[in-house]
Write a structure and sequence with these properties.
The complex is a heterodimer. By secondary structure, chain A is mainly beta. In chain A, 3% of the residues lie in helices and 55% in strands. In chain A, the strands form two sheets. In chain A, strands 2, 4, 5, 6, 9, 10 and 11 form a seven-stranded mixed β-sheet that branches. In chain A, strands 1-3-8-7 form a four-stranded antiparallel β-sheet, with no helix packed on it. Chain A is globular, with a radius of gyration of 14 Å. Classes of the chains: A mainly beta, B mainly beta. Chains A and B meet through strand 5, strand 9, helix 1 and strand 10 of A and strand 6 of B.
Chain lengths: 117, 114
């Protein structure tokens, strides 16, 4: 089974702190994603990475950065946390291959619920 | 641009009731369509998918048919159980799309009462 592991289920941070959210996948997937999930807004893509050291902005990258130094690990960084970044953060990974349908299936971690006070 | 619209929740049903969750999309070209489910306290997982018009995806008693003429992918189940209580997300992806990026609807919460 594919496993996507997020390092924390719950985090409480203070405004202005630098926050790291870590995600590890064990299936050698090329693609990794960070989303935030808010009620009524669904999932919104923050950043996407299709290879080591490669990244692409999603729909809402402001206030966030990412790091992918190893294929299995994708980190989301909040440089200076603010209260409007209180949310559920979901990491996902997918396979980039020649089979069209396979590469569109994303595997998700359980999420990190971040509260910024 | 591409988008997905789902019916608003929460939806509350009694056990063994019939379920329909509406999903419509806007996209250029021919996207693949997906339903993901999120059980309480968990991440999302794929429920079913369809890659071309008139395809029917099915899994765990759930079904959805890709209707190009109405740009819809409604989720149905004939008899829901308490264990189906979850949030359901409709999503689309372009076929030739590096990285398999998905566009999600806002989610529909389903609560099934015994």
């Amino acid at each position: 089974d594919v496993k996507v592991t997020q390092s924390s289920r719950y985090l409480v941070k203070r405004t202005g702190e630098k926050v790291f959210l870590e995600c590890v996948q064990d299936m050698d997937h090329e693609n990794m994603f960070w989303y935030r999930q808010d009620p009524g807004l669904g999932l919104r893509l923050i950043y996407f990475s299709y290879d080591v050291k490669m990244k692409e902005k999603g729909d809402i990258p402001e206030g966030y950065s990412v790091s992918r130094e190893k294929k299995e690990r994708f980190s989301l960084i909040l440089e200076s946390a603010s209260t409007n970044q209180t949310s559920m953060y979901l990491c996902a990974s997918s396979f980039e291959g020649s089979r069209v349908t396979a590469k569109n299936i994303q595997y998700f971690g359980a999420g990190t619920r971040l509260s910024v006070l | 641009g591409n988008s997905v619209t789902q019916m608003e929740g929460p939806v509350t049903l009694s056990e063994e009731a019939f379920l329909t969750i509406n999903c419509t999309y806007t996209a250029t070209g021919y996207p693949s369509l997906f339903w993901y489910v999120q059980y309480p306290g968990e991440g999302l997982q794929l429920l079913l998918k369809a890659t071309k018009a008139d395809d029917k995806g099915s899994n765990k008693g759930f079904e959805a048919t890709y209707r190009k003429e109405t740009t819809s992918f409604h989720l149905e189940k004939g008899s829901v159980q308490v264990s189906d209580s979850a949030v359901y997300f409709c999503a689309l992806s372009k076929i030739y799309n590096q990285g398999g990026k998905l566009i999600f609807g806002q989610g529909t919460e389903l609560s099934v009462k015994p």
